[in-house]
Design brief:
The protein is 51% helix and 8% strand. It has 353 residues and is mainly alpha-helical. The protein folds into 2 domains: 232 residues; 118 residues, no CATH class. A 3-stranded antiparallel sheet has the order 8-7-9. It has a two-stranded antiparallel ribbon with strand order 1-2. The protein has a two-stranded antiparallel ribbon with strand order 3-6.
């Protein structure tokens, strides 16, 4: 089922916000310059970091802005269009207050989470710069030793102190590995079920913000359609299709259930549709219960629209997708997606649809 991507209604505003964010990064590039750190007092460093955090509020302002309401309205437009071929659901009406409530709830959740992430960036940047200042001071070269150094080009003099530039660079690299940069986010390591530790991911902040806002719009769109489907007794939905180049492609156009309870009720009331037992719930796809595809995960623009299969003709029911294409595993899906990307002249790690 072809449909508009979930961030369709906010893409222009989001792109403008990301351009402003890029400018903020450029204006605060001194936070990634250890020579500036050495010649600046801790109090001035703290002020600069606080000012930077204040500027990042444009992200939170965008995520809580009224423009996000357009996703909820657009979701209902798509909902009505998806049901337009079913005469059982004519004259779709809905409560705008209910839609606004869904949008507001999800906005609050995502904005609060983003505020926490931005505070982490601020705190990590502060720790990195303060620690560097302390550790670099310990590495300063006394005058008596300075005279014995033959290659004076390696010496960096700042604030009446002398340093080995190579040593400073290595120290900065170590701290960057631990705390990242002012424009990146490092997530905490995870302890896996087998006891091993998975290193925390690091991501450019603008990439994370872009992906998180897309995830928010997808959540709003899917939740709106799930809620309105439930109000009308619709148990099944159909995942959208965009010709995705990544692992989402194995789930495009697949039929899914809104919830486990809805699935159990549907199977009980429609025993003749035995193939429906293999259809997963939206939650199972989101939580990797079926595979580890990208569908409905971070940065995914796919959504799900109502598709009440019980009203289809028998011949149409037999044509329905039976879950992932050929029941492919995630590994097979990744190999397939890489082949698609190569064929289209794109890098192997295709972007999310």
């Amino acid at each position: 089922m072809a449909a508009r991507r979930s961030d369709y209604w906010i893409r222009a505003e989001k792109d403008r916000m990301l351009k402003r964010l890029k400018k903020i990064f450029e204006n605060n590039s001194k936070l990634d310059d250890y020579t500036w750190v050495l010649k600046t007092t801790k109090n001035e460093i703290k002020k600069a970091i606080n000012k930077y955090r204040d500027q990042l509020v444009i992200i939170e302002n965008f995520m809580r802005s009224d423009s996000i309401n357009k996703v909820g309205i657009g979701a209902m437009d798509d909902f009505a269009e998806a049901l337009s071929t079913f005469p059982e659901f004519e004259d779709i009406k809905y409560s705008q207050n209910k839609i606004d409530e869904i949008v507001s709830t999800i906005q609050t959740e995502y904005t609060n989470a983003m505020s926490g992430i931005l505070d982490i960036v601020k705190n990590d940047t502060t720790q990195k710069l303060f620690r560097f200042k302390i550790m670099a001071d310990a590495e300063s070269i006394p005058e008596r030793i300075l005279k014995t150094i033959t290659d004076q080009r390696s010496i960096l003099s700042i604030g009446g102190k002398n340093y080995n530039n190579k040593t400073l660079g290595e120290l900065w690299g170590v701290l960057t590995e631990r705390y990242g940069s002012y424009d990146t986010i490092i997530f905490q390591p995870k302890i896996l079920s087998d006891g091993t530790v998975q290193a925390g991911k690091r991501m450019p902040l603008n990439t994370y913000v872009d992906g998180k806002t897309i995830s928010m719009s997808t959540d709003i769109h899917v939740t709106t359609n799930m809620t309105e489907s439930a109000r009308r007794g619709i148990s099944t939905m159909r995942l959208t299709k965009h010709g995705s180049p990544d692992s989402c492609n194995i789930w495009e156009d697949a039929i899914v259930f809104t919830t486990k309870a809805a699935k159990d009720k549907f199977l009980k009331e429609n025993p003749q549709m035995k193939q429906a037992a293999s259809w997963p719930t939206i939650s199972e796809i989101r939580n990797n219960k079926i595979d580890k595809s990208h569908m409905l995960k971070f940065n995914c623009r796919h959504t799900a629209l109502p598709y009440p299969v019980q009203f289809l003709d028998k011949k149409d029911i037999n044509k329905l997708r039976q879950g992932p294409k050929l029941q492919k595993s995630y590994k097979e899906a990744r190999l397939n997606s890489e082949k698609i990307n190569v064929k289209r002249g794109k890098p192997k790690s295709g972007k999310a649809a």
